[in-house]
Structure to design on (188 residues):
């Protein structure tokens, strides 16, 4: 059987290094992971006024999460937190009240920045949000990627062995985590 992994790229940039990182992660992931990106760029800003009638983009987001076994966040750090577009997507997914899409869902967090601490602060912020959303987060290993352009091709090939091994291990650990969580809490 395969594990269906939904993933968010937290950047709307056409030259996003986090999108490049997501391609690398997909290429290095275990064979039985099947990936679907959940787009966040066309979502309106969330308001409770939508709770009775979600727009198509938000409906699609919730359906994609419901059809997935696990969720992966690949995000930049904006001003020491996560980008507003990603927070907005999470807010949509967490609502309407009682229909939180992340409830008990296996999750992992990773991100790249051009700075030395590689989205560490954004990831801590995201972890707080996901805790409240009751996602089952992988807490170790952590992955703070200080992006070096020479290490990644645009299609997601990783040219540095140490980096490739690190990212491959991260995804293998995520697989173990997903399997463990789903053993105890099967997706309904
Ligand atoms: C940044 N950047 C940034 N980097 C960082 O390490 N910590 C930070 O807090 C911020 N803050 C920040 C705010 C805003 C509004 C922008 C546009 C950028 C730099 C960031 O790491 C860099 O732009 C990355 O390329 C963003 O990732 P994507 O969009 O290329 O995936």
């Amino acid at each position: 059987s395969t594990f269906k992994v939904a993933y968010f790229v937290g950047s709307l940039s056409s030259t996003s290094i986090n999108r490049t990182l997501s391609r690398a992660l997909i290429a290095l992931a275990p064979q039985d992971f099947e990936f679907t990106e959940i787009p966040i760029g066309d979502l309106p800003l969330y308001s409770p006024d939508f709770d009775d009638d979600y727009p198509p983009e938000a409906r699609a987001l919730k359906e994609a999460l419901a059809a997935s076994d696990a969720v992966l966040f690949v995000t930049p750090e904006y001003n020491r937190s996560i980008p507003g577009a990603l927070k907005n997507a999470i807010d949509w997914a967490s609502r309407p009240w009682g229909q939180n899409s992340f409830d008990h869902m296996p999750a992992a967090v990773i991100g790249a920045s051009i700075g030395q601490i590689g989205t560490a602060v954004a990831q801590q912020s995201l972890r707080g949000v996901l805790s409240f959303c009751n996602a089952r987060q992988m807490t170790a290993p952590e992955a703070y990627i200080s992006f070096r352009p020479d290490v990644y091709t645009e299609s997601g090939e990783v040219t540095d062995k140490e980096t490739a091994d690190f990212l491959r291990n991260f995804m293998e650990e995520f697989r173990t985590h997903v399997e463990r969580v789903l053993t105890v809490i099967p997706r309904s």
Summary: The mean pLDDT is 97. Strands lie at 3-9, 33-37, 70-74, 106-113, 136-137, 144-146.
